[in-house]
Design goal:
Largest interface: A-B, 23 and 21 residues
Shape of chain A: globular
Oligomer: heterodimer
Strand content of chain A: under 5%
Number of strands of chain B: 5
Radius of gyration of chain A: 18 Å
Radius of gyration of chain B: 32 Å
Shape of chain B: elongated
Order of helices and strands of chain A: HHHHHHHH
CATH superfamily of the largest domain in chain B: Histidine kinase-like ATPase, C-terminal domain
Number of helices of chain A: 8
CATH architecture of the largest domain in chain B: 2-Layer Sandwich
Helix content of chain A: over 70%
């Protein structure tokens, strides 16, 4: 039953990510901070499809490579989003950029030195969650520091940040206990939560794209 | 198997709770922010209303002062001239030709003076003059008028590259100049008046200095709310409407200097 839910949620994710890609492509010029996030949706949909085929053909190294590529694209898109948002101050943005470059350097050297192309890569998920959660909370903090002049329901960056926050808070403890789930053969539960989390992110991204454009004078 | 099922149920419950908590957290953030937003705009509206109220009060005060000035000018100058002319015409002795001609000529002079005074009042209160000639030229005309009386020496200088201000701002600055000159002529007993108009990169400085009696600044501050010193309070209020600053320096026997700084 749960395995069926996992399969259904995976296909639901592919549909939502594809829809998010289409909406993002159409409205990419509407909001400056979201202009590149259709790539994220495309990467997620592609990764889900590729993963399904590679998993069926049991090509572990190819699966790991696809996951690494997706993680790098995901991190880049998220950090670039935070860099472009108007809510964060210049100092915070510069700090985040520095952190991002540092993370990428560590990540690449980690992949090369620890032979992560062969080993199980799921162990780095919770580290990624931790890295992304920091700017998400900084965003909320800075949002309340500034004069409350925005209509949050029509603020695209808020919706995407909310999606990221829900997904990474939800998955952080699960990825932290990943070895337990694998040991007890319950990794399909992780898949369900992961897919539902991504469905939420891309649903929030679609909502963000559909926010009214800001009028600038 | 039973233990695994229990684990699955526990996992589903915890995950659902975390998910619901996060959704509630986002909803709470939205709610708090919107609440803060409503309060912020309410405060902003209050500040705006207060500002508009004080602006209206200032405008009414200025208007009242203007009416007082008109009334005083009419009473002191025109009324006096016309009364004298009437008296002279009433007391003409038609039998004595020489005094008759003298009295009629004197009455004509008084009526001419009244007409000129009326024209001056009309010009000084007419805001079109400043719109047509600009602040510099209008001030120049005003200073020339005072110089012609021979009682005071007024020196008017302009520094920097002339910036044409908004007509309303120029009018307010002109009214400040009029108010200051009026105070000097009436109370200062000064022989020299120095007026400077300095154009800086972001603001204009208007200063007016005299070598008259001066006054005790502390005494003035004490009565600031009283009607005694409405002239100075008008200057301050008018400066506020320009979003500028007003510095008044004076001490008994050392004259007075009023310096107005207003952004463009």
């Amino acid at each position: 039953m749960l395995q069926l839910i996992a399969v259904i949620s995976k296909y639901a994710l592919i549909c939502v990510a594809t829809l998010s890609f289409c909406v993002g492509l159409k409205f990419r010029k509407r909001h400056r901070e979201l202009s590149h996030l259709y790539i994220y949706a495309l990467a997620s949909a592609s990764q889900s499809i590729i993963y399904t085929f590679l998993f069926a053909s049991k090509k572990a190294i190819s699966i790991n490579i696809s996951i690494h590529i997706f993680l790098i694209i995901e991190l880049s898109c998220i950090f670039f989003f935070f860099y472009k948002t108007d809510i964060l101050t210049r100092i915070v943005k510069e700090y985040l950029l520095f952190m991002f470059l540092l993370c990428i350097c560590f990540y690449v050297s980690f992949i090369l030195n620890s032979n992560l192309l062969i080993r199980n890569v799921i162990s780095i998920y919770y580290k990624e969650s931790l890295i992304v959660l920091i700017p998400c909370f900084i965003y909320l903090f800075q949002l309340f520091l500034k004069p409350p002049i925005l209509n949050l329901l029509e603020e695209p960056s808020f919706w995407f940040n909310a999606g990221l926050l829900i997904y990474f808070v939800l998955t952080f403890p699960i990825f932290f206990m990943i070895s337990y789930f694998i040991k007890t053969s319950m990794s399909f539960l992780l898949d369900i939560v992961n897919y539902i989390g991504y469905i939420l992110i891309f649903s929030f991204l679609i909502r963000a794209y559909l926010c009214k454009p800001k009028i600038t004078i | 198997m039973q233990a695994k099922n229990n684990d699955i149920i526990l996992f589903v419950i915890i995950t659902t709770i975390v998910l619901l908590f996060m959704l509630s957290f986002i909803a709470a953030v939205l709610f708090l922010y919107q609440k803060k937003n409503i309060l912020y705009y309410k405060d902003l509206e209050d500040v705006k209303n207060n500002y508009e109220k004080s602006l209206l009060e200032t405008q009414l005060e200025i208007q009242e002062q203007t009416f007082q000035n008109i009334s005083r000018e009419i009473h002191d100058n025109i009324g006096l001239s016309l009364t004298l002319a009437k008296l002279q015409l009433n007391t003409i002795d038609y039998t004595q030709t020489s005094t008759k001609i003298e009295n009629i000529a004197s009455s004509i002079d008084l009526i001419s003076k009244a007409i000129n005074d009326l024209s001056d009042i009309s010009k000084s209160f007419h805001s079109e003059a400043i719109k047509t000639h600009g602040l510099y030229n209008t001030l120049k005309m005003e200073t020339e008028k005072i110089n012609r009386s021979g009682k005071h020496l007024v020196k008017f200088t302009e520094e920097g590259n002339t910036v044409f201000l908004d007509a309303n701002k120029e009018l307010i600055l002109y009214r400040i100049a009029q108010e200051s000159l009026n105070n000097i002529l009436k109370y200062a007993n000064a022989s020299c008046i120095f007026i400077k108009l300095i154009y800086e990169s972001s603001h204009v400085i208007f200063s007016i200095e005299d070598n008259g009696n001066g006054f005790d600044k502390n005494e003035i501050e004490k009565h600031r709310s009283g009607k005694m010193h409405t002239g100075l309070s008008n200057i301050r209020n008018r400066t506020k409407t320009l979003n500028g600053t007003c510095i008044i320096n004076s001490s008994p026997g050392n004259g007075t200097i009023i310096c107005i700084t207003a952004p463009y």
